[in-house]
Amino acid sequence: MGSSVLDVADGEYYKYQYFNALWVIMMLFGSVAALYYIISAVDLLMDLFVREPVSLRKYGANKGYWAVVAGCTDKVGKEIALQLADKGFNLLLLSQEMPKLEHVRKEIEAKAMKAEVHAVDFNCCTKTQWQHIHRIVENKDISVLGNLSHTLTIISVVNNIDTCHSAPVFFDKEDIELCNGMVQANVSAMMNLIRIVVPQMQQRKNGLIINVGSFAAMRSLPFFSVYAGTKSFVKTFSQSLAYELEADGIMVLHVFSFGAIASLIAANKYFPNIASPQQYVHCMFDRLGLRCGAPDSHTSIPYYPHSLLNFISSCLWDPFHAKNVLSGKGYI
């Protein structure tokens, strides 16, 4: 009788010890996870409000240097060009529509800065057009632009070339010409332009390349699959190139933008506070070189509501998860 009582007591004791050990392990993992998110939150807040960004003076602001902006006649691209002019850069502007380019050129010249424009359809840019751009940058045969009579010292390049779907659509129902144009504009054009300007930057051991990306590169995005794929290329290419060119004094930065896709996905209803071009570009230059919560190196989420939303979604609930996008649009 006494032996059976002891056996029961021993069993209860070992059961208690087992659950106690399990509780300790769970608390340990929970503490590590909590510490990780606390450190991440502090790091995010330091980037947003404390740490000093990289100054554009390092890249020639107010020194008469030139910046190239591709995709610069509307919204974020136009605002990038105008704010670079405010910071003392001359501008070489590449975009599709010449009337809009001329309008932006006049706005820049009103700021007492120089601007040259060149119409390029990045959806189907020909080899001849790229050779023409190459000659401009290398300062060879520069008379082809007529009033271009000064040396181009390219110090920074901003790629804002962005072609997107007009509406959510299944991949097999999408216009194949539009898909090919997206790949041409969002991938090939960016790559070709960087290839043209990098040699000059390497010679000077100084340069800045900013590739404007999209949150589509961070999440799976059904019904925008080609666009999301091209923006994933922009992200990975930028990060890889950044390591290659770091030793040459060239900073390559990939910045997340929310503009092109925001109005087309259901997640927009969860986060209606989309940045204006002025707000977004101001934050982009004001936090240059800071990650601001971005999960990868050489990447930035400069607009602070987007930074906070990205942090919250990574910790708790993701409004941009593919299932939420699908259900919000009524596909499932």
At a glance:
The chain is α/β, with parallel strands linked by helices and 332 residues long. Helices cover 50% and strands 11% of the residues.
Characterization of the model:
The chain is α/β, with parallel strands linked by helices and about 325 residues long. It has two domains: about 5-50; about 55-315, Rossmann fold (3-Layer(aba) Sandwich), CATH 3.40.50.720. Helices cover about 50% and strands about 10% of the residues. It has ten helices and seven strands. It has helices at about 1-50, 75-85, 100-110, 125-135, 175-205, 225-245, 260, 275-285, 305-315, 320-330, and strands spanning about 65-70, 90-95, 115-120, 155-160, 205-210, 250-255, 300. Helix 2 (about 75-85) links the parallel strand 1 (about 65-70) and strand 2 (about 90-95). Helix 4 runs parallel beside helix 5 (about 175-205).
List keywords for this structure.
single chain; alpha/beta; Rossmann fold; 2 domains; seven-stranded parallel β-sheet; 10 helices; 11% strand; globular; transmembrane helix
Helix count, per DSSP? 10
Order of helices and strands: HEHEHEHEHEHEHHEHH
Task: Quickly count the domains.
Answer: 2
How big a fraction of the residues is strand?
Answer: 5-15%
Q: What is the CATH topology descriptor of the largest domain?
A: Rossmann fold
CATH homology group of the largest domain: NAD(P)-binding Rossmann-like Domain
Largest sheet: 7 strands, parallel
Low-confidence stretches: 140-154, 263-272, 328-332
| Proportion in helices | 40-55%
Mean pLDDT score: 79
- Rounded to an integer, what's the Rg over CA atoms? 25 Å
CATH architecture of the largest domain: 3-Layer(aba) Sandwich
Through-space gap between termini: 64 Å
Order of the strands making up the biggest sheet: 3-2-1-4-5-6-7
Find the count of extended strands (DSSP E, 2+ residues): 7
What would you call the shape?
globular
The CATH class of the largest domain is Alpha Beta
Pairing-aware structural class of the strands and helices?
alpha/beta
GO molecular function, one term: oxidoreductase activity
Pathway: Lipid metabolism; fatty acid biosynthesis
Transmembrane segments: 20-39, 208-229, 249-267
InterPro entries: NAD(P)-bd_dom_sf (IPR036291), Sc_DH/Rdtase_CS (IPR020904), SDR_fam (IPR002347)
